């Protein structure tokens, strides 16, 4: 299956952060995607940066025992299951300065309970001192006067540290030392290192990725089956091995194979890693098609329920693969010839033949009715199957 070039590689920078003794104790992750406009998919850009710095580089990204500082958009913080791990080695800031409301305070409380350290700018802390200070671990200062002496006196009891960036010379360094800064970065101390995301196709092995996503969320997820799917996607295979062999997960130091790596990480961490990497490779257009394909797949599965001779998972696969050629931008017949699918599924997808083909045809006819409907659709059993499929697809897409 030919891969398409990735025209928008992501470049990340790791800015070294030093303590007052000039020891390199942390790194700040700064990322941007070449040609990325303001309106581009923020989630995808964030996923690409995290996949490169945290998941694909392993200890080269987290750099042994050092902390990784990273700013994440609020839309990402609303998805705690996608927060990068391990939490004790992460310091999380907020890329888009938020309104201080109950939603923000709850999110900060939740992240701190999970073990993350919170980095917030002094301007926000001082504006909402009593609400924000108890929820802050590191304060980013831009000038020595941003935090008054009275507030600075409160910080040691709460174990709150000060961070200053862009230190240009020794005099500036000494000024911030005098107000008690614990973390410093800037060209005076060290230059950042730049890492480009590894070149790979825009979609990669999308068929295996989608089967893997479905398998991750099955009620009885089978690690052996997940392993079979992971090995079909080289960059995921490498990422799982690197993750499990990192210093944090592999304290023994002896290299472990893929089977053991997946056991070490566990299902929750595998979901986090795989969904982040999958999101990183999706383009906005393919996400739209994936949503349509998932709605059709779930509806086919729902329609098969009253028929004991129809396998629900075969029906799901039939619906999903009826749009796989559009999703992967591949010729349908070539794609089906390369996939180890049940012949009944292939006949249903190609010719709408057999019971699975009848279910698929019924689903497609209803999709057209929904698309063309001027008035509300009747609340019949067919439309109930569609609405349930819509809810299932939305829930799964929320995990991408």
Tell me the strand percentage band: 5-15%
Mean pLDDT: 79
Strand count: 9
What gyration radius follows from the Cα positions, in whole Å?
25 Å
Strand sequence of the main sheet, in spatial order?
A: 8-7-6-5-4-3-2-1-9
Q: How far is the N terminus from the C terminus?
A: 24 Å
Low-confidence stretches: 1-8, 34-40, 199-203
Give the overall form: elongated
Q: Given the structure, what is the number of helices?
A: 19
Can you describe what's shown?
- By secondary structure, this protein is α/β, with parallel strands linked by helices.
- The chain has 19 helices and 9 strands.
- The protein has a 9-stranded mixed sheet with strand order 8-7-6-5-4-3-2-1-9.
- Helix 1 runs antiparallel to helix 12 (258-281).
- The longest helix has 24 residues, at 258-281.
- The radius of gyration is 25 Å and the shape is elongated.
- It starts with 9 loop residues before the first strand and ends with a helix.
- The model is unreliable at 1-8, 34-40 and 199-203 (pLDDT under 50).
